[in-house]
What does this fold into?
Amino acid sequence: MMPRIPLLAAALVGALVLTTACGDDDEPTASAERWPSSSTPVDSAGLVWASGSTVHLGAGASIDLEDLAGSYVVAGPGVWFASAEPGELEGNRLPQLRVATGDGIEDLDAHPAIGSLTTSADGRWLAFIDRLEEGAGAAEAVVVDVTTGEVVVRSDEGLVPSGSDDVDWTDLYEDAPVGMLGVVDQTAYVAGLDELITYDLSTGDSTTDPLDWDAIRQTEWYQALHRTPPLWNSDRSWQIPAQEFGATPVLESADGERVTTSVPDATGPLGSPDVSGPPLEEWRLGGWIDDLTAVAITPSRDGSDVDWTSPVLLTCTVPSGECSVVEGTEEGVNLPADRPFGLPRDRSIDPDA
It folds into this structure.
């Protein structure tokens, strides 16, 4: 099945598609409707996190979304996000996709499935599962080249059963979840109802294979998206080794020296001098900001309980192993949908691996 092109990118397949209009002068006219794009993308190479409506990028830059970030990713011209206030949406509808750039906020004709927003490591591709009918309908896989605005893929291949006139889409996708697995080396991978759909983004063409998770997990592309310990820094002088369950995380040098991480500023019976602050009793190492600095997450406090869903960020340095809270994250932050530790996937560990 060939991918379908949405109204938002009608007649746009390629760098620029010219269509001839049979007017009085027989002169060609151009259809230039595209998704927002940029040939000079925002810097997403560093640590990314959101607090309230502000998304913080590396080197002190930030983008104001004018609303809660919700589920978001950073690529191309800015921040792509979908958020809604409690009770704002009716039925099973999902929030509309929007993009925040230097020119403001733009609404897009898409409703990403929960947890499906993702980007490629180089920031060129935005990919997600679009749920039609304002988020309550059938699913389509979407991949956009955010350097040009071209919608390379929009297809329901493998995501919609045959004879779907009376399908309850919510029940279908709860029983048989579909998902955007990721983009690696100009190839997008989609988990369908019962098959793996692979898209060549240079052509938009697709191939299908059985949805064999044991085989999928052994592939190089899947392992590129789900890095496992040990995770080395760029000059391979220090690594984040596999951590023992319940033990304080350690860092290990290339010579085999193991350094137990610590938070020297943590005091008091709950680990924090401020009962409204993070307990600072438990943390997880997740990746490398640079060769001497690892990043970790620790839970914020939700009343008297800890909250891993809004983590506090720590940076831990070698060779001391000492960690400190990243300023501004003390009350917990919202991390990008495709960055469980705020860092690009190629520089962080998959926490579920």
